[in-house]
Structures are given as structure tokens and as C-alpha cells.
Amino acid sequence: VKVKIPFGNKYLDAIFSVPEKKSRYGVILTHGAGGDMNFPHLVCLAAYLASHGVLCLRFTCKGLNIAYRTKAFKSVVEYLKLSDDYKLSGVFLAGRSMGSRAAASVIRHLGQEDDDDFIQGLVCLSYPLHRPKLQCKLRDEDLLFIRCPVLFVSGSADEMCEKQLLEGVASKMKAPKKIHWIDKANHGMAVKGRTTDDVMEEINGQVFSWLREIIELEDK
Fold it and tell me: What are the KANL3/Tex30 alpha/beta hydrolase-like domain coordinates in residue numbering (predicted)?
């Protein structure tokens, strides 16, 4: 289902992947610095989640300014929260690369503003912890403030997220967290000798089983 989400005096293009049965939980998904919501990995994940009963809303927000991307993501969260078509108990914010930074930033800011439990967790696909070869400047400030559960799915050969550095940041985080390493994958999740479909199957399965764990804990 295609929708246009109000954002200031503009609109953001977005697409709902709707499960057959009414979903109580949703995932909001966005892309990295390049590309848009039709980036193949996102389309694949959204379809997988919807086929497993989780509503997925993916959106496009062009722009390389993290504050702008964060504002846009916030508008999408508000839109879904107030939606009459899909009355959800909670959402997970998810993004790829820069999109996951924007998602983390939204959760940090909303967490400081209100205490409702609408946001259930954060999924970071290829979180860009640092620029290539610039390991001295970590983009970890938002992660350290987050309290809700966080899942990282990263390639062990990601040039923007050195394994030891992410594990170090995770050990300082107050939130419940899990890291799933895709063996030998780079920032784009490409692995020599493995097909994209094969890698995506691993990623999709990890994301869904983690979501299910969190939702089941919430329901108890």
C-alpha cells in the first residue's frame, strides 16, 4: 500500500507491506545514505516480515544530513502512531547504514521526551560506527543513551564497523543488545562465494526471530 506521509511542507514516499492477519506490531524501515526505500535488501526484509505476520512500513528520505533524516523518521513514527488504519501496540525502528543512525537518534530523542512504550526496539543493519579508516571517531553517542532492546546485524569485514569496536560500544550500552555477525560480509552485506539471496535469508531470519523474542517477552 503506497502512502504519502506529511513532513513539514512536503511529503515522504512510503510503502506498507501488510500481513494477511492484523498485526499488533510494526517495523519502520529506511535506507542508507544512497538509494531509497526500494533498495533490494529493504524490499526483501519487508516482504519477509509481512509474510511472517509483522507489518512493515518503509520510507524514502533523501538527504545526507543526519538531523534532517532524524526529523523525517520522527514524522513517520508519529504518523504510524496516530494511524487509524493500523492500530499498533508498538513499533520497532530499523534502518540500514545511515538509516540506522537516524533510527537510533530518534529513539534517543523520543526517550528523553516521553515515557510511553510505543517504540519497542531498534534494528541496525550495517550500523556505520565510523568512517572507513577513521576508527578514532566513533558514532556511538546515541547508542549509549538508548534503553530499549537493540539488534545489530553487521558484516565481520564491514569497513565502517570494525568488529572489536562495535563489541566495545555494545559492552558500554545500557540497553539489552544482541550482535549478529555475517561472516566475511562487507558494509553492503556482500560475501564472496555467497549469493545475495542466501545472505538475505540469514539476515531476515535473524531479524524476525529477534523481533519475535522481544514481542513475546512484552506479551508476558
Answer: 26-205
Mean local confidence (pLDDT), 144-165: 96
Give the number of other Cβ atoms within 10 Å of residue 192's Cβ: 8
Q: What is the pLDDT of residue 219?
A: 65
Distance in angstroms (rounded) separating the CA atoms of residues 51 and 55: 9
Beta bridge partners, 121, equal 92
Which of 141, 145, 147 minimizes the C-alpha distance to 116?
147
User: pTM of the full predicted structure?
Assistant: 0.95
Residue 74 and residue 150: Cα distance in Å, rounded?
A: 18
Q: Any residues with CB less than 8 A from the CB of 40 and at least 6 apart, and which?
A: 196
Assigned C-alpha cell, 65: 544530513
